[in-house]
Amino acid sequence: MLISGRLSDIFHPKPVFVAGFLVIGLLSIPIAASVSPIMVIVLRAFQGIGAAMNVPSAVAMISMSFPDREERSRAYAVYGAFGAIGNCLGSIIGGVISSQTSWRWVFYVIAMLVIPFALVSWFILPTHTNHIAEERKNLDWPGVFSLTIGLILFVFAVSQASAIGWKSPGVVAPLVLSIVMFGAFLSIESIVKDPALPPRTWTNKNFTPLFFYAWSIYWWYLASELQLVQIFVDLWNFSSLSAAVRYLPLGISGGATSLLTGYIASKLPRQVLLVGGQVLMVVGATLFALADDPSKYWSYIVPGWFWGLLEPL
């Protein structure tokens, strides 16, 4: 995302956005035809690059298209709402396809939908003047590379820890190397001409708390999505289709709360929105923790989604 965001700054978000969708669509074909789990994992990792290219470029195009603050807030709200709804519907449609045919057809369908969409979007998306591109033409490859490697090593170490233990060399070594790479990234950013993340950014009194705030949102959302899937399937013995259908309230709640927060974002002080969002995420997580059997789905899981998703982005 850091690289694609930088590319959107240097050139224009439109080609980055289209390229991201093409990566997703084109790689779906070999994923569907994969002959081994390793092949699926590797190709899915590269497919994630395409997804990472879409988010910052889409946000940049929204910002360019809606210069007015209130209109931009509503546009972001609609963007977030459709993201939540699409995520939910995708899970349900994927569950239906995989249960009726094969998981491979999920990716074939993605390819059939995404590739034409990417090509059409090149012609229908507006092209705005990118003033940043005229001033900053350099991409900080050393900085981006060191940060990317550091993040990969860190995520690998954390994901391995639950299986082999925190004291295992397979966890300690990548964790230490990730810290080294993060240090290298900070050093590189202090000496290059056009850093991907200027050191002065961290001295901004708003950036650091907002950085960790955004981090906590993704923690909450991924935990509520991935962990609840495991609970539904492994502990509550729901089928994949049944588990996907039970995610429908997540899409509805996400869409509704995104529109609501987009409306109130311009009405309330930002501090109230940010602190209130954190409190509501705690409420949602607490409700998830109290849902210890399937009978508490409607009384705890669904309200947890609603309150947790009210965190204002």
Q: Give the biggest sheet.
A: none
Average pLDDT metric = 83
Strand % is under 5%
Number of strands: 0
Keywords: Membrane, Transmembrane, Transmembrane helix, Transport
InterPro entries: MFS, MFS_dom, MFS_trans_sf
Domain Major facilitator superfamily (MFS) profile: 1-313
Subcellular location: Membrane
Short description:
The chain has 313 residues and is mainly α. The protein contains 14 helices and no strands. The chain has three domains: 1-124; 141-193; 206-309, no CATH class.
Provide an overview of this structure:
This is MFS general substrate transporter. It is a multi-pass membrane protein. GO terms for molecular function: transmembrane transporter activity. It holds the Pfam family MFS_1. The protein contains 14 helices and no strands. The chain is globular, with a radius of gyration of 21 Å. By secondary structure, it is an all-alpha fold. The protein has helices spanning 2-10, 13-32, 37-65, 69-100, 103-124, 131-135, 141-164, 169-189, 200-203, 207-235, 240-245, 248-264, 270-290, 297-308. Helix 1 crosses helix 2. The protein has 3 domains: 1-124; 141-193; 206-309, no CATH class.
